[in-house]
Design brief:
Elements: E1 19-21, H1 25-35, E2 39-46, E3 49-54, E4 65-70, E5 73-78, H2 95-98, E6 102-110, E7 116-120, E8 128-133, H3 135-149, H4 156-163, E9 165-170, H5 181-184, E10 196-203, E11 206-213, H6 216-222, E12 228-229, H7 232-244, H8 257-262, H9 269-274, H10 282-286, E13 293-299, E14 305-312, E15 322-323, E16 326-327, H11 332-351, H12 361-364, H13 372-379
Length: about 400
Amino acid sequence: MALTMFTNTPTTPRPLPARAMDPAGLETLITVLRGEGYEVLGPTPAEGAIVYDRLASAADLPVGWADEQAPGHYRLYRRQDAAYFGYVVGPHSWKKYLFPPRETLFYIHRRPDTSFRHEPAGEPPLPRAFLGVRPCELAAIASQDIIFNGQPVVDRGYAARRGAVFTVAVDCAAPGGTCFCTSAGGGPTATGDFDLALSEICHPAAHFFAVAAGSAAGEGILAQLETRAITSAEQAAVQAQWESAPQQMGRELPPRAAPLLKSSLEHPRWEAVAKRCLSCANCTLVCPTCFCSNMEDTAELDGSTAARVRTWGSCFEAEHSYLVGGPHHASVASRYRQWLTHKLAHWHDQFGHSGCTGCGRCITWCPVGIDLTEEVAALAEPAPEGNP
């Protein structure tokens, strides 16, 4: 899979699709992908949320389900139609398959002569097809591509897993209450690195998918599907959906967030938000771009083998900034400031783009409903008189 530079700036919309397929074509798509050796992963309803898991058939998709999202609030409800992708995003992101929550990196074995042997961990990655990747998630994957694949030292495990992925993107038709991808440059129409892209049109008089290939691999799969030439009326419906989706954003990220945050490090708003923040790390766990990690070294009791294990970490953990006998970010205010300024400002310095794609998960899954866009807007206001 080619590396796509993610810049958080609007891109030229892709051409209108020339092919269309009926909803039954999703079953064919899953069958074809499995026949090509892919494990098909996608959205499915489970335990009151839309999660990502293995798909045995199109019946596993969240047909007729939608999600209601607000700060600290998430609920599924039944739609009045049979849309397959009528939800927004759930608590899972594709990150868990590319940058696993727990991964053994290597083993060290002691030989009988007391010398040591290094053994890389892991089997060759299973080819996987990601079905139902939203545009904000395409942007998040592109961001992590730069973090793990675009540096002088490449993360071998990530690179291997990423190279074995076939991506089926799905445009967002109705963004949710906590979405702000338009102002973050992450969507809502897929323009990034995908193999196939689907636009679902679900109206009382018509239900179909416009489909387009974005790679040679995508062209090969598309050739095996039962598609037809799209009509001008269907293209008009797709165009109308592409134009209406950005108008339905539930939130907006204030412009020029990076320089604003860099100039507001002593603003009293940091202490105000810290009074609400639980430092629970939910926002970083659901974020599709956060990449902090911890390293654990384990050993057999007989000293024969040791392993290094990488697990997800968070800058909200006091131990994350532990230096010379104590945490550098000892207060909740300091940790929240570290997270937000890194995400929206210093990420630009490191990787050339923002670390936020506007998916809204951090707002939805915050137990106390802290809203990133609200905090940035508040930091844009002058400090009250008497405060620094």
